[in-house]
Design brief:
The chain has helices at about 40-55, 80-90, 120-130, 145, 160-165, 180-185, 200-215, 230, 245-255, 280, 290-295, 310-315, 320-325, 365-375, 380, 395-400, 405-425, 440-445, 450-460, 465-485, 490-500, and strands at about 5-10, 15-25, 30-35, 65-70, 105, 110, 115, 135-140, 155, 220, 270, 285, 290, 300-305, 325-330, 335-340, 340-345, 385-390. With about 500 residues, it is α/β, with parallel strands linked by helices. A hairpin with a 5-residue loop joins β6 (about 110) and β7 (about 115). α20 (about 465-485) packs across α21 (about 490-500).
């Protein structure tokens, strides 16, 4: 063996550190990679050969074995290109040795020697800091994202040729990102979609505000053209702005999915097609990427035409709705992703969509309507805090109606309600009312005597489950927060009970 070098790189969603060793021995000039490399890593050897030549370096004229340790972990993707190339150059004495105990390299190489961006950079940077490393060399396009992590030095690398100056001890270039300023500049109505454009539908608008104020899950039930999708798409505009911690978590998820190159400053709004697969919704696949429920974290997941989604995909939502995270287990690995989203769904009341219409347009029998509603299981429906009927709007009243209340005005009340919740729960408590545990309900959702009598009487009439009973209390707590009331009153309980209508999904 004529030479040996060791670099370090982060691999996989579990953020394990992987050593990259290059051993140069005598023999025919070849480069071989061992240590469970996948096809992308093996093809990277050819990319590295071309990149070395085009960047002005000489190819090693000896037999090279690249050992990707630890050997029992499969190495995937092109993240290892840059560390392998640098290890080869150091072993061949074309570059001085780097301190592999403090420096981490990540990046994909193009054939011309330029360094291309990789996904998951925020997670990589956080893991580098947790591992005690001091310096992270990243593709130039990923530098802004990596600089969101404090406590480590970020060195942007545009091409393999930059390693010459970097290895000679050139000063570290640290891009500064004022996260607070970026977040402050984003405090505008998302997408320019204003709730004032919704005419009429006072009941549904009120339910939308309650859902935003407490993080409650909402089901909109009504005929086609009633405005269900229109209102749902304006939900992000009335939600509070992302906090710094939330923005970093959202950015981290989107970065792992390959959908972010900088700080995500707006509340996510995900609206997958009803043909989406179970893996697409919950996450997984060969690369163990997050699904739509994780991409919607700290935002809104909108499922339009809920009954058209696959049954197995919908049932998979039950556990994440309760726990706020999902653990995906597949043959080739396992990963846990955040899933703290607000679920907003819409559906028609019957196959034709016009059940209960006063003009008698619906021709569906009660059996057909019941069969249509049975596409959704009882446990899934029980997880909706708010179920609201959205009646059709008459064209005459639509033309005469004045613009509704703006998103900005509604958002002010939502922000005030969320502020009361933060003050009540403290920094280590639930993020919003819908996340309250049973112990939190006992401490923070006390109901006066008249309200408790009303709630107990309604439980027998509506047939509420224990989960439904607690969800009514959570919604009532949110209604009290919107009104600025310290305790839950009978009026809050009465309104919360109005949002649970199992009979509209099971007509006589």
């Amino acid at each position: 063996m004529l030479g040996r070098t060791t670099g370090a790189v982060l691999y996989g969603l579990d953020a394990r550190l992987v050593e990259v060793e290059a051993d140069l021995g005598t023999g025919i000039p070849t480069i071989a990679a061992v240590g469970l490399p996948d096809p992308a890593v093996r093809e990277g050897i050819d990319r590295i050969r071309a990149a070395l030549g085009n960047a002005g370096f000489k190819l090693p004229q000896r037999r090279v074995i690249v050992n990707l340790a630890p050997a029992e972990i499969r190495k995937r993707g092109a993240t290892l290109d840059l560390p392998i190339a640098v290890a080869l150059l150091i072993a061949d004495r074309q570059l001085p040795a780097l301190d592999h105990h403090s420096i981490v390299l990540v990046g994909e190489l193009a054939l011309d020697g330029s360094v291309r961006p990789v996904r998951g950079m925020l997670s990589l940077a956080l893991s580098v800091r947790e591992a005690g490393r001091r310096t992270l060399l990243v593709p130039k396009a990923n530098a802004e994202e990596a600089c969101l992590v404090e406590g480590i030095e970020i060195v942007p690398v545009a091409s393999l040729g930059d390693m010459v100056t970097i290895s000679r001890g050139s000063p570290v270039v640290r891009r500064s990102v004022n996260v607070e300023r970026v977040l402050e500049s984003s405090r505008i109505c998302a997408g320019g979609q204003d709730l004032a454009e919704v005419r009429g539908q006072a009941g549904a608008r009120r339910a939308l505000e309650v859902a935003a104020a407490g993080g409650h899950h909402l089901l909109l039930l009504g005929p086609p053209g009633a405005g269900k999708s229109m209102m749902a798409r304006r939900m992000p505009g009335i939600l509070p702005p992302l906090s710094l911690q939330e923005a970093l978590e959202v950015t981290r998820i989107h970065s792992v999915a390959g959908r972010a190159r900088g700080l995500v400053v707006g509340r996510p709004f995900r609206s997958p097609h009803h043909g989406i697969s179970l893996v697409g919704l919950t996450g997984g696949g060969r690369g163990m990427r997050p699904g739509e429920i994780s991409l919607a974290s700290h935002g809104v997941l909108f499922l339009d035409e809920l009954t058209e989604f696959r049954r197995d995909a919908l049932e998979a939502l039950r556990q994440p709705l309760e726990d706020g995270e999902i653990t995906v287990v597949r043959v080739h690995g396992a990963a846990t992703f955040p899933a703290r989203f607000t679920l907003v769904a819409s559906m028609n009341p019957c196959p034709c969509g016009y059940y209960g219409s006063p003009d008698g347009r619906c021709s569906c029998s009660p059996q057909q309507v019941r069969r249509y509603g049975s596409k959704l299981s009882g446990p899934l429906l029980d997880r909706f805090d708010l179920v609201v009927e959205v009646p059709p709007v008459e064209l005459k009243s639509l033309a005469e109606a004045s613009p509704g209340e703006s998103s900005e005005a509604v958002r002010e009340r939502v922000v005030a309600a969320r502020r009361r919740q933060r003050e009540r729960f403290g920094p280590h408590g639930p993020s919003c009312n819908t996340r309250m545990e049973s112990s939190d309900l006992e401490r923070h959702a006390a109901i006066d005597q008249s309200g408790r009598r009303l709630l107990l009487a309604a439980c027998d009439r509506l047939g509420l489950s224990a989960r439904g009973f607690d969800r009514v209390r959570r919604v009532a707590r949110t209604l009290a927060d919107i009104d600025g009331a310290g305790s839950i009153e009978a009026s809050h309980v009465a309104e919360a009970l109005q949002y649970r209508h199992p009979e509209i999904l099971a007509p006589d």
